[in-house]
Amino acid sequence: MNDDFAKDIILKTLEKGWWILLLLFVMYVLVDILKDKKILNKFKGINKAHSDRDLLYKFKSLSYGEFEQYVAFLFNKLGYQAEAVGKSRDGGVDVVAKKDGVKHYIQCKKYNSGNKVNLHDVRDFYGSLVDFLADSKGYFITTSSFTLEAEQFAKDKPIELIDGYKLLKYIKMANLDSKEYFTNKKEEKCPECGGELLEKRGKYGKFLGCSNYPKCRFTKRIK
Length: 223
What we know:
The chain is α/β, with parallel strands linked by helices. The protein is built from 7 helices and 10 strands. The chain has helices at about 5-15, 20-60, 65-75, 120-130, 150-155, 165-175, 180-185; strands at about 80-85, 95-100, 100-110, 115, 140, 145, 160, 195-200, 205-210, 220. The strands form 3 sheets. It has a 5-stranded mixed sheet, with helices on both faces. The chain has a 3-stranded antiparallel sheet with strand order 8-9-10. It is extended, with a radius of gyration of 29 Å.
């Protein structure tokens, strides 16, 4: 077989099978694109995880009063009429959220370390509210997590346990931009004792009250 004959066979083969080569090329390009997309999605997942951890870290950096204020802010966005009541109530109730004429009671537990909310905490919260939960619900919200015993105790009771990552889901449900919230959050201190000024609701509407009440009775009207 001479060289000219061989070249002629190769050219005729290429002419007849050009579509096969094109198909192979397209397949190669698609595989490369899908591979890049898979890597991109993987990085998006990593970035999201970092974002969630960063947000939880910001929650843990808040004071107790600030965290209670944020939870009240969140429940207001979820359609409740919520107010941070802090130490003004017994039984560990930090926020009261009203909806459809029914009051719901929330305890907030902010942990800076890896501590978990234990059975004792949840049982005490339930015990203080058991007479008020006929038609309403209790929420125990923490930046951390709950022990297995605490979760088992709450299973058949009208109490919802919300750990840090479940709190993030609630934030997404409310379509909140928490980065903006933390950026715009203005810290206001009590001029008399240096405590935090918390938003409260009284007989004549909303006002700012000192977190050290009743030791400090400073109040400020909200215009």
